[in-house]
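Appendix C: a fully annotated inverse folding record. The material below is reproduced so that readers can follow the format used throughout the book. The structure is listed first as tokens, followed by the designed sequence.
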């Protein structure tokens, strides 16, 4: 968790309001039933001022999450992308985490949200590396969770819905209580799926792999970024299922996510991963840092400049 420092403005239902005024009623059904879809996006400092990384792809996923849940967003994607830019500009903080959310609002209560008003907000807060800067540098200790990633026959993992994060929270809390930084969730077939808020990659004999979308994961934007980097690095890549024991025998493992960035995993359930060096992960981390900070012309199309 991160302590939130108040910034200036939040975009709420079409306009920028003061931070303190972005409130909802306690009988908001989205709060009770987890009927909310959201995104997690970052803006970073670049030589040309703040720039939002892969805004278009994040908002594509936002609209797709809404579609899966039959949620009618009363704004176009273009309006919401502009609203993200306006919010970053209004808050005057270059390095910031952006959280668009749509939820069924106050007015009716019950399990059919069809007639509830859909409210949309874009909040921002400052958030360092989710698994810590030390984690990014030295790697984190992870544990395979006793909780399975929820199955797409119950809750669609490709929709970034608030309800999914109850599953994530159970796994995360179990990991933290056990003294680990993060969890790794298996799916109902017993194969590796993802972390509670990150995708996972494995390196073995210079081949990099990540579980396919059919393993029941969120299709991460950072995952997609890493996959593109692998092609540019000339590294072999496979989308393939792997087992718990293939975690233990990996040369390198890392998490990818907007919040976590690219964070190496140095240990899984007491087994050290590889030699403790992460040469391929390091190459990807450098490429990622250059891309998000506008130091790499090849990835400039992924940046939406705020100024
Ligand atoms: C469950 C889950 N998997 C993976 C990711 C990584 O996705 P992204 O790289 O788009 O942030 C996230 C974060 O949004 C997540 O919540």
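Designed amino acids, in order:
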């Amino acid at each position: 968790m991160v302590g939130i420092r108040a910034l200036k403005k939040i975009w709420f239902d079409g306009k920028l309001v003061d931070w303190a005024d972005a409130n909802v009623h306690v009988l908001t059904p989205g709060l009770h039933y987890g009927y909310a879809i959201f995104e997690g996006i970052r803006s970073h400092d670049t030589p040309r001022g703040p720039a939002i990384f892969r805004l278009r792809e994040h908002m594509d996923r936002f609209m797709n999450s809404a579609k899966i849940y039959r949620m009618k967003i009363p704004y176009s994607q273009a309006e919401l992308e502009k609203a993200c830019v306006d919010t970053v500009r209004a808050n005057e903080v270059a390095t910031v985490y952006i959280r668009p959310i749509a939820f069924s609002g106050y007015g009716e209560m019950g399990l059919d949200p069809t007639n509830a008003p859909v409210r949309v907000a874009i909040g921002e807060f400052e958030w360092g590396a989710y698994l810590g800067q030390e984690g990014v540098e030295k790697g984190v200790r992870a544990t395979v969770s006793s909780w399975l990633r929820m199955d797409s026959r119950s809750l669609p993992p490709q929709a970034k819905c608030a309800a999914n994060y109850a599953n994530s929270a159970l796994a995360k809390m179990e990991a933290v209580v056990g003294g680990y930084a993060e969890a790794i969730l298996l799916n109902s077939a017993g194969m590796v799926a993802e972390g509670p808020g990150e995708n996972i990659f494995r390196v073995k004999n210079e081949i990099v792999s990540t579980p396919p979308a059919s393993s029941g994961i969120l299709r991460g934007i950072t995952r997609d970024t890493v996959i593109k980097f692998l092609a540019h690095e000339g590294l072999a890549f496979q989308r393939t299922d792997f087992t718990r024991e293939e975690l233990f025998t990996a040369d390198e493992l890392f998490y990818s996510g907007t919040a976590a960035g690219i964070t190496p995993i140095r240990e899984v359930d007491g087994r050290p991963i590889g030699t403790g060096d992460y040469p391929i992960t390091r190459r990807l981390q450098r490429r990622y840092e250059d891309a998000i900070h506008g130091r790499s012309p090849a990835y400039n199309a992924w940046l939406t400049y705020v100024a």
